[in-house]
Amino acid sequence: MFEELWRWSGAFMQGTLVILLVFLVSLVLTVIWGLLGASAKLSGNRAAKAAANAYTVVFRGTPEFLLLLLIYFGSAVTLTALVKLVWPQTRFVDLSPFWAGAFAISLIVGAAATETFRGAFLGVDRGQVEAAQALGLRRLQVFFLIRLPQMWRLALPSFGNHMNSLVKDTALISVIGLQEIMFTADMAASTNSMPFAMYFAVALIYLGFTTIITLGTGHLERRANHFMTVSR
Known about the structure:
The termini are far apart. It contains nine helices and no strands. By secondary structure, the protein is mainly α. α2 (9-42) crosses α5 and α6 (126-134) packs antiparallel against α7 (139-169). The protein is 84% helix and 0% strand. It has helices at residues 2-7, 9-42, 46-61, 64-86, 97-123, 126-134, 139-169, 181-192, 195-231. The longest helix has 37 residues, at 195-231.
């Protein structure tokens, strides 16, 4: 068993790097979708609020695996149709599994982040926002200097769970052809007939990712609460 694991160690390391890159890209996108969705839900614009509500209902109520397939194949159909408008001779255009997968899981987790950010924004002391406005700060200044930093502190515990979800959801992307660690484990298991050992190695890698995220989030929470205690 150990000989087989060593033989596939290079492939597992490459797959782990792919997972890390997917996670980082999808993390940035998740924050964007979450902030946009929360801002839309808290806005007075009915159309924006309705769109944000539809987004969270659909992406929180549909199986993640199904959403991944719909986004991957749907993006191919959409891109092909758009390109054919310019170059009619085009036969097929699609997103790479990397970008399609990162985009899909960011939308999935971003729906949950939307609700987390919305609740955190509501938890910001309204008096501080009014004081900032009274001092003459503009709307964007109030958002970036007052609301966003305090919202982030309140959202951090739940957002740590969202980051763990992002990491674990990367395991789904192998189904659309991305050569990450699940893809590698499938290949290894099919050649050496040792599926338990191969998948157990993958489980340890994912456990390592989630442990680092959990410890890092806990450290950030303690720092945020320490600063709050000092300020009091």
